[in-house]
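Fig. S4 source data, part A: sequence.
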Amino acid sequence: MEQIYSDKLGKLGYTHYADIFRDWEQVKDEILIPLRKQGSGNGTIHVFLGAGDAALRNAFPEYYTAVEGLNEEPSTGAIPITHYFSRSNIINLIGPCCEYDYRHLDTGGINQERINTLFTHLTQEGVVDGLVKTSSQFKLSMAAGKARPYFKNFQPEGLFPNVIRQLLLPQSAYKISLYKNDEGEFAAFWLLGFSSDPTFDSDPIALSTPIAPNISGSLQTIYFGAPGCGKSHKVAEVLAGGDEENIFRTTFHPDYDYASFVGCYKPEMEEGEIKYAFTPQVFTNAYVRAWTHPNEKVYLVIEEINRGNCAQIFGDLFQLLDRKDDGTSYYYIRADKDLADYLQHALSGDAKRGIEEGNLCLPSNLHIIATMNTSDQSLFPMDSAFKRRWDWEYIPINYSDKVKSGQFMITINGKNYKWVTFLEAVNLRIQDLTHSEDKQMGNFFIKGNITEEVFKSKVMAYLWHEVCKDEYRTQRNFFRSGERAGNGEEFSFNQLYDEDIDSTKLLQGFMAYLGVSAIGEESAGEENE
């Protein structure tokens, strides 16, 4: 069967099991409505599957053995089957049926009243990803000592007798494939057409190349880099011009959990009584907004994603992050009852697809953006299954004077030092010490010009606690003041606040040790070298 149908059944939890009729199988006369029959009899809604017997024996060996070998009653082991049809395939058959009945006025077939009845049944049956369904049994009948396979006992008021059978003509044919889910339940997918008419497009809506939705950029991106490298600035650029009503923000932290992300029951006062109601959180709010505004881009922004336990926070929602080419989730997941009940009320009309048959599916207009500090990557490690569902974009550190941070200054005792010059020098020392770029500082670790006090409390504090503290009293520590040639005088962070020590002199010596000169003193430093 065509891959598109396997994908559709896959979203419902089924995998391909066997082809009953891989090629077009001519419809049997007995199944036609009485006035279209070419033989005698009143017709039946039993579907004979004799040409697919070999495939069915492989699919249901125990049932065949029980009936043929052990003489068990066929009804005892009859197998429930859910039948799926493409709605567009069914609609496409109406035209040929109208033409046939026009040429055979005695058939009493398609007319306006019957067309209305057909569409009424199609609507009542419900549509899931363009599929409609009904049910029957796969049942064997014994004849001359051999089991004959059938689909029998279709729902009497269901899709098959009231829609499918009404559209079958003497020249009709079908392909049928069998599918199975993890619970051992079976489904059959039907494609209806005409074996004698190769020009008939059995399902033009489903088979034609779909119009790609307007998806620009990645649907799930993690921007990562050193602290202050500009990740949030990058997110702001992505969101620029977007409607604030379509932007949902949250920040992960160690105590953040699934209930904080999705929602849970919480107490609320109603007419003086405490009652409990489902309170949606950021994911659910973004999900509802995206489904109810399908032509607008909706963004879920997660800051510091690796500061939370992603496996715990997302739970089985992470399966939704696998997206198809059209931007929707490749796999559906079952919503828990509380969330499903809420969404049934929150979604209406076409947006109901967001909770169709109790399943969740990300729409193509929902973008998820996250930021991650590489310096925090060991807080809650992400497993590879979670990581692969994201696009990753590294935000590099830019030491150019042309960027905004190229104009930032550090002022120490009236002397100005360029921030990017200091940044480049200290980041080299961090990389040499840690053999990693994770602890380096980014362009926007500071937001503008800073004083000596801010430099101590923000920059030097970070360097000491994150990088140098564990290297104190070793040759590797670069918390040193003085000329590099003399290896400098080692100092600790606390000494910067010791009233008996000249902290300004320590800081100027620290700059000298790194080889960072104050503005206006660069040429003198070069001559000394």
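Fig. S4 source data, part B ends here. The chain has three domains: 3-207, 220-394, 404-528.
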